[in-house]
Amino acid sequence: MIQASDLHKSFGRNAVLKGVSFEVARGESLVVIGGSGTGKSVLLKCLLGLERADQGTVRIAGLENPAPQDLAAHIGMLFQGGALFDSLPVWQNITFRLLRGPARLSKTEARALATEKLARVGLGAVVGDLYPAELSGGMQKRVGLARAIAGDPPVLFFDEPTAGLDPIMAAVINALIREIVTEMGATAITITHDMRTLRDVADRVAMLYEGRLYWQGSAAQALESDDPVLAQFVQGRTEGPIATLR
Questions:
Q1: Ranges of the chain with pLDDT below 70
Q2: pLDDT of residue 69
Q3: Domain ranges of the chain
Q4: In the prediction, which pLDDT does 221 show?
Q5: What are phi and psi of 225, to 5 degrees?
Q6: CATH match for 2-235 among 3.60.150.10, 3.50.50.60, 3.40.50.300, 1.20.1330.10
Q7: Which of 14, 214, 118 shows the shortest CA–CA distance to 126?
Q8: With the C-alpha atoms ordered 84, 94, 100, 89, is the resulting torsion angle positive or negative?
Q9: Predicted pLDDT at 246
Q10: Among residues 171, 173, 180, 111, which one has the least CA distance to residue 140?
Q11: 2-11 vs 14-24, strand pairing mode
């Protein structure tokens, strides 16, 4: 469902991606880990077509190097900061794309769909008429998740889904992601540095390090590995091959 082949991306003299290649099978949940500044967000932007790789190929849902507007109908995206439109009520945020374009829904259909997706993420219909500023951080994340699945896309992307959440709400979001991916049979990529998300969400893990996918394997293997680079990151140690500011 998702394939990246030999992706390279530089900004001036700063080479961020140096030949990244991987595949994600249909229905599989891949979690990509790595430290701050290792290129996780750049990789995600290249997959989504928001940045063009200098070299290499991206294939998603049968589309090769798709433009964002061509990819939109095939994917759902949960953004790190929620990325909700402050000026729109929740129900319009959830159905934003579906209210536009040639196959647009009527407002009645869109509101009904928004209510259905709100229920799926544990929120009542009354939330649909609220505005983002009236929601807690956890509620905003759940609304963002409802928007991601609004069109029942075959591919889902999650960018730091638990960032800024307390441990309990983070566990709730992780559980929702795992349940929804399984129910929909969706193919998913999650970008995170949260080991709880790795445990709860991943079928397979890939570590981005020094511009390449340094390690790939199962979640259990990632948590138990004695590889010095992977183990330092997973265990949060300051001592090891990964450079830290001291």
A1: 244-246
A2: 87
A3: 2-235
A4: 94
A5: -65, 145
A6: 3.40.50.300
A7: 118
A8: negative
A9: 45
A10: 173
A11: antiparallel
